[in-house]
Design brief:
The chain has 193 residues and is an alpha/beta fold. It is built from eight helices and five strands, in the order βαβαααβαβααβα. The protein has helices spanning 14-25, 32-41, 45-55, 62-74, 91-103, 118-132, 140-162, 176-192; strands at residues 2-7, 28-31, 81-85, 110-115, 167-171. It has a five-stranded parallel sheet with strand order 2-3-1-4-5, with helices on both faces. Helix 1 crosses helix 8 (176-192) and helix 5 crosses helix 7 (140-162).
């Protein structure tokens, strides 16, 4: 089983690259947003618990999110591995994910971090805002605040995995194909090890 976390600030191309990595390696995509929506739609105990927090405008606690991830892992025993997207976001979540995977005698194999300059991110998001219909993609001040928030939140996660030598920074500028091949090269190194 091969498990990876793909990091990238808003506009880094993470969504595009995730889809391609999932297709090439047969990974199961685990997005906390998708998991939350699915659990709520299926009215599971975890989904109803999460909905209660969300309805009150509160963050869904880590224990509930970890429960959803455990459920997703359990429900996909045939998976060749998982690509974690939007999770973990804190050191505590990283430690909880590591513990959950260790119970299954698995681990995160690599954390791939797409590196893109802030100016390029702003340019990409403003371009995307012309057609996406997303209000958070049309205001440069909001875009810069989102990028800053991303860096604040993910630095602790990167630091956690960096101590185990699992973080690899990949240049996220260039053609989609070049970036994809650079990501694949890093995965292949770890799969061969």
């Amino acid at each position: 089983m091969f498990n990876l976390i793909l990091f990238g600030p808003p506009g880094s191309g993470k969504g595009t690259q995730s889809e391609r990595l999932i297709a090439r390696y047969g990974l199961k995509h685990l997005s906390t947003g998708d998991l939350l929506r699915s659990e709520i739609a299926h009215k599971t105990a975890l989904g109803l618990e999460a909905k209660g927090f969300m309805d009150r405008g509160e963050l869904v606690p880590d224990a509930v999110v970890i429960g959803m991830i455990r459920s997703a892992l359990d429900n996909n025993p045939e998976a060749k591995g998982f690509l974690f997207d939007g999770f973990p976001r804190t050191k505590a979540q990283s430690e909880a994910l590591d513990a959950l995977l260790a119970q299954r005698e698995e681990a995160i194999n690599v954390v791939l971090a797409l590196e893109v300059t802030e100016e390029e991110l702003v340019k990409r998001l403003l371009n995307r805002g012309l057609t996406s219909g997303r209000t958070d993609d049309v205001n440069e001040g909001i875009i810069r605040a989102r990028i800053e928030e991303y860096h604040k939140k993910t630095s602790a996660v990167a630091d956690h995995y960096r101590q185990f030598g699992k973080v690899v920074e990949v240049k996220g500028e260039g053609t989609v194909d070049d970036i994809f091949e650079a990501l694949c090269a890093e995965i292949e190194k770890r799969k061969a090890a």
